[in-house]
């Protein structure tokens, strides 16, 4: 099923100049970026984004970290894109993330794991709403979609 997921290139990856390489992986897979912007996460956005983690030992440092430098926020669309992006990202703890995944290849430790991706349809919708207005999401066709239409 065609899905949209919220993806963020986290502050550590922005600071390490990995924006282009991470976006390349999303494009190489064939997913469509339908919204994209750099922004400084506010306290309100951080609290809302990470509400499920309130009370966990890493919560305070997580919120501080996500506001420590800009993020690159995206809405990524594609067939089963929520699970697909989680696969491309790799496991939360980069020590267990497969080689070839973004976290497996670029992240040295769990608190600096370079990318966020929604973990299900409800969180995707909720997270997209935290960072994007509906009019910031672009309707457009990739070459692949145009070719598929032509062949159908
Ligand atoms: P996810 O990003 O793979 O969905 P979550 O469990 O939702 O993982 O955790 C959100 C973020 O919180 C992680 O990406 C990571 O940056 C951080 N985090 C999660 N667990 C730990 C931990 O045990 N220690 C330090 N940071 C953690
Ligand atoms: Mg999560």
Q: How would you describe this structure to a colleague?
A:
The protein has 152 residues and is α+β, with helices and mostly antiparallel strands. It has a single domain (2-150), classed as 2-Layer Sandwich (Alpha-Beta Plaits). It is built from eight helices and four strands, in the order βααβααβααβαα. It has helices at residues 11-15, 19-29, 43-49, 59-66, 81-89, 102-106, 121-131, 143-151, and strands at 2-9, 32-39, 71-79, 115-117. A four-stranded antiparallel beta sheet has the order 2-3-1-4. The structure holds inosine-5'-diphosphate and magnesium ion (MG). Inosine-5'-diphosphate binds at residues 58, 62, 92, 110-111, 113, 116, 119.
Report a brief summary of the structure.
By secondary structure, the chain is an alpha+beta fold.
Number of domains: 1
How far apart the termini lie comes to: 18 Å
Strand arrangement within the widest β-sheet reads 2-3-1-4
Share in β-strands: 15-25%
What is the mean predicted local confidence, pLDDT? 98
Element string (H = helix, E = strand): EHHEHHEHHEHH
Radius of gyration: 15 Å
Bound molecules: inosine-5'-diphosphate, magnesium ion
How many beta-strand elements? 4
Can you name the CATH architecture? 2-Layer Sandwich
Low-confidence stretches: none
CATH homology group: Nucleoside diphosphate kinase-like domain
Class inferred from helices and paired strands: alpha+beta
CATH topology: Alpha-Beta Plaits
Q: Name the overall outline.
A: globular
Highest CATH level, the class: Alpha Beta
Q: State the share of residues found in helices, binned by percent.
A: 40-55%
Largest sheet: 4 strands, antiparallel
The DSSP helix count reads 8
